[in-house]
């Protein structure tokens, strides 16, 4: 019995070495490649013959992924924003009786964190890329900011951070915010750590 078990363990070890030697390691996408794909997506969307037709979900199920964050308006608890791991951002103004998608036309639908500015509650910060370290987690496209409570959005940088786990805002200065980034999963990249902006997202300094 011991001899059979030993032979089985040796066979497993040989198979393990064989799989490792034949493994193909693929480099992660570069920032330039990500930028190019986002630009191509925008061109395709703008030139589409169906761009003015609304899309309606017809099933079989409604799927937006896991809820990654909820941000409640500090002065009105009936208003809050819900961020999904792979479904964008939704907003309610009636305590959740109805939810409206407000991030569908941006460059990423995987959301890691959302924050309402402490100094100006109409300013909403969104960090894209789910924070979980999993092969089923989608990378994001940086940080986005709304100045009008989610009506419109602007990209503010940190494209290659890929997975943003936390955004903090200054309580009295609407131009100051901090972003915590996981960076690329299972591969090397330099855009991971803590970033700070003092000009509303126009520039970012890596502080950690």
User: From the coordinates shown, what is the CATH architecture of the domain at 64-208?
Assistant: 7 Propeller
**Global outline:** globular
Radius of gyration: 21 Å
CATH class of the domain at 64-208: Mainly Beta
Mind telling me the CATH superfamily name of the domain at 64-208? YVTN repeat-like/Quinoprotein amine dehydrogenase
- Secondary structure class reads alpha+beta
Low-confidence stretches: none
Total of DSSP H or I helical runs spanning 4+ residues: 2
N-to-C series of helices and strands: HHEEEEEEEEEEEE
Beta-strand share of residues:
25-35%
- Strand numbers in spatial order across the main sheet: 1-2-3-4
Alpha carbon gap, first and last residue = 56 Å
How many strands appear in the DSSP assignment? 12
- Major sheet characteristics: 4 strands, antiparallel
Q: Percent helix among the residues?
A: 10-25%
CATH topology of the domain at 64-208: Methylamine Dehydrogenase, Chain H
Nearest-integer average pLDDT: 84
């Amino acid at each position: 019995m011991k001899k059979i078990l030993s032979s089985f363990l040796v066979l497993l070890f040989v198979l393990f070495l064989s799989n490792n030697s034949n493994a193909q390691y693929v480099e992660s996408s570069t920032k330039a490649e990500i930028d190019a794909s986002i630009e191509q997506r925008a061109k395709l969307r703008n030139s589409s013959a169906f761009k003015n037709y609304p899309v309606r979900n017809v099933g079989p199920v409604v799927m937006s992924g896991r809820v990654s964050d909820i941000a409640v308006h500090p002065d009105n608890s009936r208003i809050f924003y819900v961020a999904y791991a792979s479904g964008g951002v939704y907003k309610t103004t009636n305590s959740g009786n109805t939810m409206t998608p407000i991030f569908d036309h941006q460059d990423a639908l995987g959301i890691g964190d959302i924050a309402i500015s402490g100094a100006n509650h109409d300013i909403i910060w969104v960090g894209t890329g789910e924070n979980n370290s999993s092969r089923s987690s989608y990378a994001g496209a940086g940080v986005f900011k709304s100045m009008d409570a989610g009506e419109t959005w602007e990209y503010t940088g940190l494209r290659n951070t890929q997975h943003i786990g936390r955004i903090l805002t200054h309580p009295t200065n609407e131009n100051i915010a901090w972003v915590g980034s996981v960076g690329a999963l299972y591969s090397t990249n330099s855009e991971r750590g803590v970033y700070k902006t003092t000009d509303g997202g126009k520039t970012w300094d890596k502080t950690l």
